[in-house]
Design goal:
The protein is α/β, with parallel strands linked by helices and 304 residues long. 42% of the residues lie in helices and 13% in strands.
Length: 304
């Protein structure tokens, strides 16, 4: 078994992998139509502000969710395209195929007074967000499918990151508020679950560079961050005016990703996230197996 296949089976076992394969096969057999001509693809870990970013970009008149499950099917992804808790039943909500054969209302978003140049409106983008576990952490197969999709569509890749301890706290907090969300990931498993997300994103980014956006940029410099992304999508269009959008034209950083900087950030992140992993205390009467336990007849200091 290849290393990528082993990683794909690791999260939830063989039964989960079998169900994933069945849903992928059903998606490939379904007639979902042609993909969008232009696509913004956001790769991110959970609780990184991805829905916030997607909805903010959807305020632009030329960016919207593709109505069908087409992109997920072509990329071999299995997951929900828009959060269940944020779905809308309002009459003005757009109906989107959030899972294969399952439609749901997605709340409409717009920025009052926002306008786009005719040249921009003529080049609209669809937008999707994908977490690594949607493609089973098998970045090799995912990137092969992405390359095939790029022969039919223009794809702009964005990596959305967040400080890992903050992401973990948000993950656990949301689970407490909604126990049904990611119920298969128990709290002691959450640090390892998120660490695998960071590691998969790093491997993917090394092979497929893209624009890097940090959650702190959204939280602290929201307007120029969005202006940077729009400049990436429509490089020849004039920057959005502050009067219409409230977005300044200055970019936060160069739009070329520094792979070495990203690698360093992710490697530090994956080390720090393990600090929050809860330690299991041995049962009463059990002996430790570490070097401290062997050196002391009463066991190591952590267990006393």
């Amino acid at each position: 078994m290849s290393a990528s296949a082993a990683r794909a089976l690791a999260p939830y076992g063989l039964l989960h992998a079998w169900h994933r394969w069945r849903r992928q096969l059903a998606a490939r057999r379904a007639d979902l139509g042609a993909p969008p001509e232009r696509l913004v693809l956001i790769l991110c870990n959970p609780r990184s502000g991805s829905t916030w970013l997607v909805d903010a970009l959807r305020c632009h008149p030329a960016i919207e969710l593709h109505p069908r499950y087409t992109v997920f099917a072509l990329l071999g992804c299995v997951g929900r395209r828009y959060p269940l808790d944020l779905a809308s039943g309002a009459s003005d909500a757009a109906q989107v195929e959030v899972e294969l054969g399952r439609w749901s209302g997605v709340p409409p978003f717009a920025c009052e007074g926002a306008e786009a140049e005719p040249a921009v409106r003529a080049l609209p983008y669809a937008i999707e967000k994908i977490h690594p576990h949607f493609f089973g952490h098998d970045e090799g197969a995912f990137l092969a499918r992405l390359a095939a999709l790029e022969r039919r569509a223009q794809v702009e890749t964005v990596y959305l990151t967040r400080e890992p301890q903050a992401a973990l706290r948000s993950f656990l907090s949301y689970q407490r508020r909604n126990p049904r969300w990611n119920a298969q990931i128990r709290p002691p498993q959450a640090p390892r679950h998120l660490r695998r997300m960071y590691e998969t994103l790093l491997r993917t980014a090394r092979r497929r560079p893209g624009l890097v956006v940090d959650y702190d940029d959204l939280a602290q410099r929201f307007a120029p961050t969005l202006a940077l992304m729009l400049a990436r999508l429509w490089p020849h269009a004039p920057p959005p005016s502050a009067g219409a959008w409230g977005w300044g034209p200055r970019a936060l950083r160069n739009d070329r990703m520094d792979v070495h900087e990203l690698s360093s950030r992710y490697l530090q992140s994956t080390r720090r996230i393990t600090v929050l992993a809860p330690r299991r205390r041995p049962r009463a009467g059990a002996r430790c197996r570490g070097s401290a336990a062997r050196a002391s007849p009463s066991g190591c200091g952590r267990c006393r």
